[in-house]
Write a structure and sequence with these properties.
CATH architecture: Sandwich
CATH class: Mainly Beta
Number of domains: 1
Radius of gyration: 23 Å
Oligomer: single chain
Distance between the termini: 59 Å
CATH topology: Jelly Rolls
Largest sheet: 6 strands, mixed
Shape: globular
Order of helices and strands: HHEEEHEEHEEEEEEE
Structural class: mainly beta
Number of helices: 4
Strand content: over 45%
Helix content: 10-25%
Mean pLDDT: 86
């Protein structure tokens, strides 16, 4: 049987045109009614291992991010209660910082989470975002997350791994060694599935 070269057909304009004409666009996303936030925090210096609550920086956020869900250094999701009542909502959380390590060792880590301030029963007390490590003396750009949690309005024991909209949280940073953290940012992305 003779060999047939089909490469001409793949390169021809007519064939490509037919392929493009048969493609259909994907589904449209929701309209541009974003419920997201990009929050900046002041630099943190750890002289030794420890735990600190980060202080919110409204000026840096105003100039470089988008302020939402923050009140007196506390993250508050109460404004989402009506949205959660009529939809299925998830919260995707990321964080970022630049980190310089003072020394090395087995406890060379940075952990970022949201620590509960006011909590409803049967809801998350600590929202773990992520843990990273950095070698001594180098400044590194670290990303934490993403993590995804469901938002609820109830205190049902079946929803004990969810974030209740009545809960409030603080951004908490834990380290195992001396660190200097700069450009600390928290990103909150609300994902809505309409019922």
């Amino acid at each position: 049987m003779p060999f047939v070269d089909y490469s001409f057909y793949l390169k021809s304009k007519n064939c490509c045109k037919k392929i493009v004409e048969t493609c259909t666009p994907g589904p449209q996303g929701p309209p541009g009614n974003s419920k997201n936030a990009s929050l900046f925090y002041n630099n943190l210096t750890f002289e030794d291992a420890g735990v600190l609550i980060a202080d919110y920086n409204s000026i840096t956020t105003f100039n470089n991010g988008f302020e939402r869900y923050i009140n007196n250094n506390v993250i508050d999701f109460n404004s989402l209660a009506s949205l959660v009542s009529s939809n299925i909502c998830f919260l995707e959380i990321y964080s970022h910082c630049d980190a310089t390590a003072g020394n090395t060792g087995t406890s060379n880590f940075i952990k970022i989470d949201l620590s509960g301030v006011i909590l409803e029963p049967n809801s998350l007390q600590t929202i773990d975002i992520d843990t990273r490590s950095v070698e001594k003396g180098t400044e590194e750009h670290l990303s934490f997350g993403p993590v995804l949690y469901k938002l609820v309005n109830n205190s049902n024991s079946n929803n004990n791994l969810c974030i209740n909209t009545k809960n409030t949280y603080s951004l908490r940073v834990s380290t195992g060694r001396p660190y200097i953290l700069t450009e600390i940012k928290l990103i909150l992305k609300v994902i809505i599935f309409e019922n």
